[in-house]
Amino acid sequence: xxxxxxxxxxxxxxxxxxxxxxxxxxxxxxxxxxxxxxxxxxxxxxxxxxxxxxxxxxxxxxxxxxxxxxxxxxxxxxxxxxxxxxxxxxxxxxxxxxxxxxxxxxxxxxxxxxxxxxxxxxxxxxxxxxxxxxxxxxxxxxxxxxxxxxxxxxxxxxxxxxxxxxxxxxxxxxxxxxxxxxxxxxxxxxxxxxxxxxxxxxxxxxxxxxxxxxxxxxxxxxxxxxxxxxxxxxxxxxxxxxxxxxxxxxxxxxxxxxxxxxxxxxxxxxxxxxxxxxxxxxxxxxxxxxxxxxxxxxxxxxxxxxxxxxxxxxxxxxxxxxxxxxxxxxxxxxxxxxxxxxxxxxxxxxxxxxxxxxxxxxxxxxxxxxxxxxxxxxxxxxxxxxxxxxxxx
Length: 393
Prior knowledge:
Elements: H1 2-19, E1 30-31, E2 33-36, E3 39-40, E4 43-54, E5 57-60, E6 66-71, E7 78-79, E8 84-88, H2 91-126, H3 132-165, E9 167-169, E10 174-176, E11 186-187, E12 195-198, E13 203-210, H4 214-222, E14 231-234, E15 246-250, E16 260-267, E17 279-287, E18 292-296, E19 301-303, E20 306-318, E21 329-346, E22 349-354, E23 361-365, E24 374-377
Parallel strand pairs: 1-24
Antiparallel strand pairs: 2-23, 3-18, 4-13, 4-17, 5-12, 6-8, 6-11, 7-10, 8-9, 10-12, 13-16, 14-17, 15-16, 18-22, 19-20, 20-21, 21-22, 21-24
């Protein structure tokens, strides 16, 4: 009897369970913000790492050998063309100069004597009062004396030049660096570097571009309508240099290994604010010729080097909970993932080249919670604290 009762209870439980309808799974809609994609004219800057360079720079090398006996400048300061910088021991070179001058005077005295003899023998030769051989010897002696004077004069010039080389002067206006020699150091001709001088302004800024960009920069160089803001520079502290530049030189050849070419801009440097060798960033003012699609960076998702956005799409789905025919269909808003090609980044925005169309509703906030086909809602938009700025349908 008990067994029968137990079986009856089990059958009743099974029947009750089978009669209950299965509840549909609960779907959570992700709150998002939408942005209706539009096209607009775009201005932006192409940026290139760059290095400052002097338009003129020279290493000072001694032209004579000797010990440094004087240094007449302050390191790191501005010097003028012709300013005295170093003095090399001149005593030997002054003695050589004095000796060359004395030898020139002796040669000039011998020339006077030879000239007198030649004149005398020429007069006697007219009357056949002297042997022909003696006359010829007198003329030859005069010519030799003349050549000796010329040689002595050249020796004086050489000795004077060497004496002048004992004083090293600035070849042009510029900034002089740290001295590579000290008082008493012995320097050698053409090998010992005394110092380096570079011009202050204008100053060059060198950067590298790909050969594919070369025609664009050649057009900019040839153009006579360059805007004042076409070339600007960001300094190492990310501040904007207050002066604008122009293209000065495009290198003669493309590097065959890298496919790159160097371009030099020239900027004013009135206060010597830019120093040679500084790292900076060149900004080239650019403008797209046609209106572009622009989205906030946060709307674009990168996956394995590819870029995607989510587009909101209205979809009609079956509603099994509806009791009437009019409610059997339900409208839902779904997130559809689209692969896009991106262009230039402009501050917090990015240009979209392909993959979406103007008029599409792009999801700008909440993309981290989405996958292709996610149900979304704009009823509870994300607040500013979560990074949203309000949706636009």
